[in-house]
Amino acid sequence: MSAVEAKLAELGLTLPEVVPPLAAYQPAVLSGVYVYTAGQLPMVEGKLPVTGKVGAEVTPEEAKDLARTCALNALAAVKSVAGDLDRIARVVKVVGFVASAPDFTGQPAVVNGASELLAAALGDKGVHARSAVGVAVLPLDAPVEVEIQVELVP
């Protein structure tokens, strides 16, 4: 077990299996020393626990927890191509998409769920640049989607 996975275990979390693609793409791609993940939905055992728009059917607090799940799924995708999460030199960028009710403006607080998980699991290596974007709809009516870019130790 990697040190990152041990830290996740301390947080009461287990790295899930990689979420299978919903269309024609790979969950993660390795290019040089960088791993780029596809957008990760908050799938748990193959299902979305909640659907709908944040600020309408989904509360911001629920969405923040879902963003955390997205980040955990993204780490699983990274491991699938890097082999070991201890190879992570740093998380470079996080992009979070939040399916938002028209008047909802709390996207940064929602995506904090992903950012906080990465920092908790990776320490300073998990601190990153980030975008948090409100969108009209996401695949499968998911409330949140997160993608990450990671630099590996060569």
UniProtKB/TrEMBL annotation:
Organism superkingdom: Bacteria
Residue span(s) of domain Endoribonuclease L-PSP/chorismate mutase-like: 5-148
Listed Pfam families: YjgF_endoribonc
Signal peptide: none
CDD domains the UniProt entry points to: YjgF_YER057c_UK114_like_1
Gene3D superfamilies attached to this UniProt entry: RutC-like (3.30.1330.40)
InterPro entries in UniProt: Endoribo_LPSP/chorism_mut-like, RutC-like_sf
PANTHER family on file: ENDORIBONUCLEASE L-PSP_CHORISMATE MUTASE-LIKE DOMAIN-CONTAINING PROTEIN, ENDORIBONUCLEASE-RELATED
Name the record gives this protein: Enamine deaminase RidA (YjgF/YER057c/UK114 family)
Organism: Streptomyces pseudovenezuelae
